[in-house]
C-alpha cells in the first residue's frame, strides 16, 4: 500500500502536485473537456483545506522541450480559478523553474495555489533529467503524484523528483490503484476480461497476464481476425497482423491449459469498404467473403457476450469490439457498454477508446470505475509496476 496525502502532515508545508492537466483545446485555446481538471479537485481541495502551500504542475501536449504558447497551461489556470473559486497564481515562466519562480513559491501562504508552466517546455522532463527533477523538488517539501495518465512514464515531474523529497499519492492515483488493483488481484468471480481494439500487438502482455487471473476472456474487435486466421478461417480484407498469428495460437493454447474460457465472436458484420456508408451484412465467422472486412460483431455474438457479462461478478473492458467511431458499426460496442451498465458486477473500463465509447453512449455513471489513463491502465493490467507509483512511499 502506498502512502497518500492523508498519511502525512501537510499543514504549512510547500506541496508540489503532479496533475494530469493534458486537456483537449480547440483552435481558440478553449478547453473542450475539463474532466482531467475536475478529477484533480479532491486532492487540490484537500491540500487547501489542510493549509498547505500548493504548487501544481502538469504537461500539456508535446511541445518537445521548447516553450510554445500553443501548449501553455494558461487556460488551465483560468479553469482552476473558476473551479476552486479562488485565485490561482499562474507562473508563465517558460523555463518552468527559475529564481523568480522560487521566490514566488517561497512567498505562498497557507491555502494559496500556484500553477507552473508546462513541464514539457523543458527538454530534461521526458528524459527524467536529474537537474530538472532537483529544481522542481527545491520548490517544495513534499511531492504528491496525482497524474495516473502519466504514471507509466519515468519523467522528472512523475518520478525523478521523488529522489529528493518525500513522495505520496493523491486521491486520484489512490482510486486507480484501488480499483484496478483489487479487480486484478482480488476479483469477485467469475472474472471476465473483454479485450478489443485494433491490434493484438498492443495488448499481448495484457492478455498473457490476464490469462493467469480471469475465468473467461472475450477477444473481439480488429484483433480477433488474427485469431480467426490462426484457426484457419477466411478473414477477407479484415485487419490482420500476420506476424502475430502464431502468438494468437499460443494464447489460445495457453487459455485451454489454464481452463480459461476464451470466447471469440461467432458472427461478424462485414463491409466492402472502411466507411460508415458502406453497405453491411452479418456473416457467420467462418463465412466471411474474401472481398469484405469485419467491422463489428454480429447479433449472435452480442447475445453470447451479453450473457457472459450478466454472469460475471468482475469485468474489465479494454478496447472497442468494432469500429465504433462509425455509427453503423457501433452497435456491438454499444451493446457491450449496455450489458455492463445493466450488470451489478464490478465494472472497470480501461482508459483510451473504450472509455471514449462509454462516454459517447452516456453510460459513465453506470460503471464502477473508468480509468483516467489509457497507456497507464494497460501497463497496470500487464502486471507492471508504474514508475510514477513505484517512487511513492509505502505505508
Ligand atoms: P485500440 O486503440 O487498440 O484500443 O483500438 C481502438 C480502435 O480499434 C478503434 O479506433 C476502433 O475503430 C478500432 N477497431 C475496432 N474494431 C475494428 C475492426 N473490426 N477493424 C478495424 N478497426 C477496428
Salient structural properties:
395 residues; Rossmann fold; single chain; 13 helices; 15% strand; binds adenosine monophosphate; 33% helix; 2 domains; alpha/beta; six-stranded parallel β-sheet
Description:
With 395 residues, this protein is of the alpha/beta class. It has two domains: 5-173, Rossmann fold (3-Layer(aba) Sandwich); 187-381, Rossmann fold. The chain contains 13 helices and 15 strands. It has helices spanning 35-49, 74-84, 99-106, 130-137, 171-185, 204-211, 224-230, 245-258, 299-311, 331-342, 353-360, 374-381, 387-390; strands at residues 14-18, 53-57, 88-90, 113-115, 142-145, 167-169, 191-195, 216-219, 261-263, 267-271, 280-284, 293-297, 314-318, 346-349, 369-370. The protein has a six-stranded parallel beta sheet. A six-stranded parallel beta sheet has the order 9-8-7-13-14-15, sandwiched between helices. The chain has a three-stranded antiparallel beta sheet with strand order 11-10-12. Strand 1 (14-18), helix 1 (35-49) and strand 2 (53-57) form a beta-alpha-beta unit. It is elongated, with a radius of gyration of 23 Å. Bound molecules: adenosine monophosphate (AMP). Residues 196-199, 202, 221-222, 239, 294-295, 319-320, 322-323, 325, 352-353 line the site of adenosine monophosphate (AMP).
Amino acid at each position: 500500500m502506498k502512502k497518500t496525502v492523508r498519511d502525512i502532515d501537510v499543514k504549512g508545508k510547500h506541496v508540489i502536485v503532479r496533475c494530469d492537466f493534458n486537456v483537449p483545446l480547440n483552435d481558440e485555446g478553449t478547453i473542450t473537456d475539463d474532466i482531467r481538471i475536475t478529477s484533480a479537485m479532491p486532492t487540490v481541495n484537500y491540500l487547501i483545506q489542510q493549509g498547505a502551500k500548493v504548487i501544481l504542475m502538469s504537461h500539456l501536449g508535446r511541445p518537445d522541450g521548447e516553450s510554445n504558447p500553443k501548449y501553455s497551461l494558461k487556460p488551465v489556470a483560468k479553469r482552476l480559478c473558476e473551479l476552486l473559486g479562488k485565485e490561482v497564481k499562474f507562473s508563465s515562466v517558460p523555463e518552468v523553474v527559475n529564481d523568480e519562480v522560487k521566490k514566488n513559491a517561497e512567498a505562498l501562504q497557507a491555502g494559496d495555489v500556484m500553477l507552473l508552466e508546462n513541464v514539457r517546455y523543458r527538454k530534461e522532463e521526458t528524459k527524467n533529467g536529474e537537474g530538472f527533477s532537483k529544481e522542481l523538488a527545491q520548490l517544495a517539501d513534499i511531492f504528491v503524484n496525482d497524474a495516473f495518465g502519466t504514471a507509466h512514464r519515468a519523467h522528472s515531474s512523475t518520478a525523478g523528483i521523488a529522489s529528493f523529497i518525500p513522495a505520496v499519492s493523491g486521491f486520484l492515483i489512490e482510486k486507480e490503484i484501488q480499483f484496478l488493483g483489487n479487480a486484478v488481484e482480488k476479483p469477485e468471480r467469475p472474472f471476465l476480461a473483454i479485450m478489443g481494439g485494433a491490434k493484438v500487438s498492443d495488448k499481448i502482455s495484457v492478455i498473457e497476464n490476464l490469462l493467469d487471473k480471469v475465468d473467461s476472456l472475450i477477444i473481439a474487435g480488429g484483433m480477433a481476425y488474427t485469431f480467426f486466421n490462426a484457426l484457419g478461417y477466411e478473414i477477407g480484407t479484415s485487419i490482420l497482423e500476420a506476424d502475430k498469428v502464431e502468438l494468437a495460437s499460443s494464447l489460445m493454447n495457453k487459455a485451454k491449459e489454464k481452463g480459461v474460457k476464451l470466447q471469440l465472436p461467432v458472427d461478424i458484420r462485414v463491409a466492402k469498404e472502411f466507411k460508415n456508408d458502406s453497405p453491411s451484412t452479418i456473416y457467420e465467422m467462418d463465412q466471411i467473403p474474401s472481398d469484405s472486412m469485419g467491422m463489428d460483431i454480429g447479433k449472435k455474438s452480442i447475445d453470447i457476450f451479453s450473457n457472459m457479462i450478466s454472469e460475471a461478478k468482475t469485468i474489465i473492458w479494454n478496447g472497442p469490439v468494432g469500429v465504433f467511431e462509425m455509427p453503423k458499426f457501433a452497435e456491438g460496442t454499444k451493446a457491450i457498454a449496455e450489458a455492463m451498465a445493466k450488470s451489478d458486477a464490478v465494472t472497470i473500463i480501461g482508459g483510451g477508446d473504450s472509455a471514449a465509447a462509454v462516454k459517447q453512449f452516456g453510460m459513465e455513471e453506470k460503471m464502477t470505475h473508468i480509468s483516467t489513463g489509457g497507456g497507464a491502465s494497460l501497463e497496470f493490467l500487464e502486471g507492471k509496476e508504474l514508475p510514477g507509483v513505484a517512487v511513492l512511499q509505502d505505508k
